[in-house]
Amino acid sequence: MKPPVFDYEQPTSLRAALESLSRNTGTFKLLAGGYSLLPLLNARTISPECIIDISRIGELRYVTEEAGTIRIGALATHDQVMNNSAVIRECPIVFEAYKHVGNHTIRNRGTLCGSLCFNDPTAEMPLIMSLLGATFVVRSSWGSRTLSANDFFKGPFTNSLMPNEMLVEVRIPRQPAGHGHSFIEISQRYGDRGLAAAGCMLTLKYGVVSDVRIGFRNLGEGLGRVRAVEAELENKAVNAAAIDAASTAARQSVRPEADMHADAEYRRDVAATLTKRVIETALMRAGQTSHVPSFSGRLS
Amino acid sequence: MKERDIQVTVNGRNAKKRIEARMLLSDFIRHELGLTGTHVGCENGVCGACTILVDGTAVRSCCTLAVQTEGCHIETIESLGRVNKLSPLQQAFWEKHGLQCGFCTPGMLMIMTELLRQNPNPDRAQIRERLNDNLCRCTGYEDIISSVERAVELMRAERGVQ
Ligand SMILES: Cc1cc2nc3c(=O)[nH]c(=O)nc-3n(C[C@H](O)[C@H](O)[C@H](O)COP(=O)(O)OP(=O)(O)OC[C@H]3O[C@@H](n4cnc5c(N)ncnc54)[C@H](O)[C@@H]3O)c2cc1C
Ligand code: FES
Ligand code: FES
Predict the structure, then answer these.
(1) Nearest to A105 among B27, B51, B68 (CB)
(2) Domain at B49, CATH number
(3) With an 8 Å Cβ cutoff, is A62 touching chain B?
(4) Complex ipTM, two decimals?
């Protein structure tokens, strides 16, 4: 179908966009890459009175690194973030997870911040940003506030932005040197919406793991990092029993829903299995000096 | 404003129109400019049949508003070749049976045009990786991969590389 009729504004500066947001009292939507919004408009799932197109605000299209912090502007595309050298070097889990985000054409135009605001329960990046401890810089024409992932994300398809606010930047702090990472997603076909996904980051010193971060996607409402799973490993010596305990904790912590693709029990099994796999892979990688990611072209 | 003037360059030609803001780029190209080579399959961002190049990058035209491309350079399937003078990529799809019904073909040719500009010598794995973008209901994909490999050969020959 075709989008409904709407008013259209195209601010070309952040200031103008924020003014536009505070002026608009009716229903409106920001438009960034459009790859989540346009399908909804085409299907007429939503009919906003006004579209505020922020895609021309060049000043927000950046990925930079300053004093160990990576700053990603609202309009940086998935492709720009995925292939940024500082991102690849400092937080290789981003590249690993991005291989599952749509496909090349989607990543050409879709934005990281759009994906975070949309917060689709199957989207990979909300989990990755939670694992990385990223902070979210939110602005309105009144001022700005900085939120943790926990405070920014609400339930599926929701975030904590006020109507006059927009996400302007995501900040990824410096990650522990030599940390291990892993992200694994299960889907029916490579590139499809994820059935379930898990991610893990950890640090390994003298056989003891610390700074363990484990979380899931599409395995229950609001699941980001899951402390009950992390606690099974934190400050413990790595052995098969600890990994099994984490895997069991994952099975108990997730609250998956059944749909036409898989029932809840299957998804619990997947959560337990993925937990084991991401921990094992992260352990294997921990302490290696460089994680040079390669796009092997493998399709699963 | 519900309407807007836009000016874009399409396949090297200037186009200027007053359009509704809600008009999809795919409809702008097909209905306003009469370039019906770009196909519309799902209008949902999933199939890739509508893919065109905007400022050199592949874009789903069904999930882009025409007004978003103000001032941009657009390339559609019509920019590739003619019936009596196919481009190397088109020639290769013809030789290697890279199409059956042809519905997905305009999108396939445009994503592969982008790939071959970024990487003139992709290997089979890289071609497969990029093919992940678009759907084809007929060929089973293998012939499309072979077609792109053949296009690489043809283009190398054109450039005089052995
Ligand atoms: C075929 C297909 C497959 C896909 N597969 C995946 C996938 O596997 N994984 C995945 O994560 N995503 C996937 N996506 C979605 C894609 O990643 C989108 O690009 C992304 O979710 C939204 O980013 P966008 O820039 O396109 O945002 P838009 O569609 O423009 O906006 C999305 C929402 O966020 C709001 N918004 C955007 N920017 C801001 C901002 N700065 N501040 C406040 N609100 C804002 C908009 O108002 C809108 O509600 C897929 C999309 C398609 C079409
Ligand atoms: S018609 Fe645009 S992606 Fe299917
Ligand atoms: S040739 Fe028929 S869909 Fe691809």
Answers:
(1) B51
(2) 3.10.20.30
(3) no
(4) 0.95
